[in-house]
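User: Predict SulP family inorganic anion transporter's structure from this.
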Amino acid sequence: MRHLVDRIFNSRLGPPGTHAPPGAPAPRSATFRADFTASLVVFLVAVPLCVGVAVASGVPAELGLVTGIVGGLLTGLLPGSSLQVSGPAAGLTVLVYEAVKEYGVGALGIIVLVAGLLQLLMGALKLGRWFRAISVAVVQGMLAGIGLVLIAGQLYALADAKAPGSGLANLGGLPDLFIDTVGSDSALAAVAIGAGTIAVLALWPRWKKAAKVLPAPLAAVALATLAVFVLDLPVARVEVQGLLGAIQPPGTDDLSRVAEFGIIGTVLAFTLIASAESLFSAAAVDRLHDGPKTDYDKELMAQGAGNTVCGVLGALPMTAVIVRSSANVSAGAKTKASRVLHGVWLLVFAAAFPAALGVIPVAALAGVLVHAGWKLMPIKDIRPLWRDHRGEAVVLATTAIAIVVTNMFEGVLIGLLMAVAKTAWETSHVHLEVSGDDIDGGVREPQSLVVAKSVPGGGSVATATIEEAEPTTTGTAGPVRVRAVGNATFLRLPRLLDQLEELPADREIQLDLSGLRHLDHACEAALLSWAEQRRRQLAEPAGVSIDHMPVRGAVS
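Assistant:
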């Protein structure tokens, strides 16, 4: 591909080895040539992905191309990230499929439209940068859950069968799918095409020369289509409606459904997941090049504008897609012109060659998405994460399992709550430093009682360490001085109260809270209650003071 473009531009640009002087900016002609080449590469990567995501989402294949076109021509022109490419993403396939199944294709447009408007609002309010505060474990768990559900659903399409529906139902139906497939020649033929597609996707990048000319997804789908044509296999093919026939703008009845509780939850899920995926993709793409970095707020507004237009057209939601974006950077793109041109090529293809979609086997597209679902799962990261940050691994696994068991929105919420709870537990450590005269011998013996100390991987451990004793003194035992240090929250309250109950029952207690960085209401109330109960239980009154303020009688 690049050699062909070189021959086209050589007459004006000079031979491919010609370079600008060191430090000088690249000529506009050279920049355009690089962007032109990159746009063709991204276009070839995008076509099978756009069509595959649409088919897997339960909508006409052309709607995937519409979203890709909007992502190139509109979002590609707007400021934000210069090199990342937007379009329909495998990460939203499960959510879109559930929404279409629950509310119908007609409601998809209004859901995407409102999600786009929310993204515009969040970008205007400068909330884009806050998406970087989301726990990485939750994001990885979200992608793993999406990958699991996506693979489970596409295994049915791989055999030209219909999936039962939800993630658990799809997983539970796999034994029956296996039995039905073994007994059907047409299903076995479809599985062979899908498995061959996955094999090409895995092996094609190793053939360096071929991979530079033709991207793996396009090569896999093209070879599968050729095999079906030559062998005349009885497998299902993509249904074609035509570009204009597939566009279904939302009607007035759809607009009235915005207030439904279920649709509100779906809109929020679309907004959260599409925004997070786009901005995390932007961060990843920024690490791939040395050009201008992403303005997260502007990029969020660009995504919102694109989704608003997609919603008006009744198309799929868009996000920034790391596969296309990395292909864009690897192909040598210099400016946003490459992603805009890729949108032009998609438009030309959809308008001039719509019948070409009708020869693509559905099993081949299912193979593309099974491969994409596998790549969504952080297989290589799980073992080191479990070894070094066990709590994060638990959050990741919980999020993924919750998405499979419930749905996307509830699963992500559960993951976020788990991450917050884990962080609160790890940061809310408090310990008591206890010192005073020994009860029996008048020996002053400083002692440190660690109430709760965080350990790697989560959890806590109680320890007691004895420091070097000071010279002994005789006489009446003095007060026991207790200094609390750390963050006292309700999470550590049971252990804290247990340590206080172990203090000598017949001695005056001086409880110093000045070392606490945080004291929540639950701990404050519990400490006051403990002081009052201690005062009432003593046979002979002994003082209890908090912050060196003696409390005699009732604690107030």
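Residues 7-24, 439-475, 548-556 have pLDDT under 50 and may be disordered.
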